[in-house]
Amino acid sequence: MLVLAAAVVVAAAGITAVVLSSPAAGPAAKPCDIPSSVPERPVPATTAPGGGGIEVAEKGVSSTGLASMGAVLRNTSNHIAYRTKAKLNVSLILDGIRQSLDGSQLTMEIPIVLPGQQVGLGRPLINLNANDKVASADVDVQTTTWLPSGALGAFTPPADTYESTSRATASPPADAIRYRETSTNCRALATRRTAVIFRDATGAIVGGDLVPPDGKGNPAGTTQQPPASPSCSPGERSTWIVPLQNIPHRTDDHRTVLYSYCDLNTPPTDINNTF
Predict the structure, then answer these.
(1) SS3 104
(2) 253 phi and psi, to 5 degrees?
(3) CB of 138 within 8 A of CB of 59?
């Protein structure tokens, strides 16, 4: 039997969604109301319409070896923050001289932060020797596009549940972190990496990273199994990341937290993919 599908374009407040419907789908079928895109109008992320904004809830660094920084941002407004840019501002003391760390990799973009939601971000910083240290570390919350609640339809952030950590006696990157990602969204979204936050036994942040999910190939010394489906697609999968550094030695593995960065689409230039 021939089944015909009709494309329906819905436009509301500048948001465009493409919905496929089929006469054979039956009355129980529901269209997917997650838009394919929204207009970007970047404004300060710290001040939302009606009050609140994006604030830094936590931050922390690892201070030995290949140092890294992790932070957790929180949306205290009743609006959705779309494509929030934030930069790590880090000052170092290298051989007794204080200087600022710079580089494009220190600026990142969180695709979606719902009202009341917390999302992590992190990056490796620099390789430190015995005479070096991180003097200060902060997060410069820059811009976002504020959307009214409900503008993204039934979008919900995927739930990431830590499973295990495998450490390999090889040059980094070699360690692997396995986790379970569950998405209840009605369509596949664009993955823009996965953030990982490392914590010590007290719960304090001791570093972080932002790396591609669904590790390509197996890290040396481990036997990782490929995911059942790509990150940010509907359903559940067990997948893994390979941090760009050795996991900080003070990390309490079971306190590791992961955040899948799922977007409506992939931007022409993704600032999260600097390395």
Answers:
(1) helix
(2) -50, -45
(3) yes
Higher-confidence residue: 257 or 4?
A: 257
Residues 155-194 pLDDT 10s: 999 999 999 998 876 665 668 899 999 999 999 999 999 9
Which amino acid is it at 5?
A
My answer on whether omega of the bond before 173 falls inside 30° of 0, hence cis, is yes
pTM of the model: 0.86
How big, in percent rounded to 5, are the helix, strand and coil portions of the chain?
5, 50, 45
Please tell me the distance from the alpha carbon of residue 13 to that of residue 111, in angstroms, as a whole number: 19
Could you tell me if 147 and 82 are in contact, meaning their C-beta atoms sit under 8 angstroms apart? yes
Look at residue 32 and tell me whether its pLDDT is greater than 70.
yes
Main-chain dihedrals φ then ψ at residue 98, nearest 5 degrees: -85, 130
Dig out the tokens for 148 from the structure. 């009214």
Q: Strand pairing of 143-148 and 43-44?
A: antiparallel
pLDDT higher than 90, residue 18 = no
3-state secondary structure of 237: strand
Question: Above 70 in pLDDT, residue 96?
Answer: yes
Q: Is 161 helix (H, G, I), strand (E, B) or coil?
A: strand
CA-wise closest residue to 90 among 59, 114, 118, 112: 59
Instruction: Return the closest-CA partner of residue 22 out of 32, 35, 11.
Output: 32
d(CA 255, CA 198): 7
Number of CB atoms found within 10 A of residue 238's CB: 16
Return the exposure string of 113-145: e unless at least 16 CB atoms fall within 10 Å of the residue's CB, then b.
bbeeeebbbbbbbeebeeebebeebebebbbbb
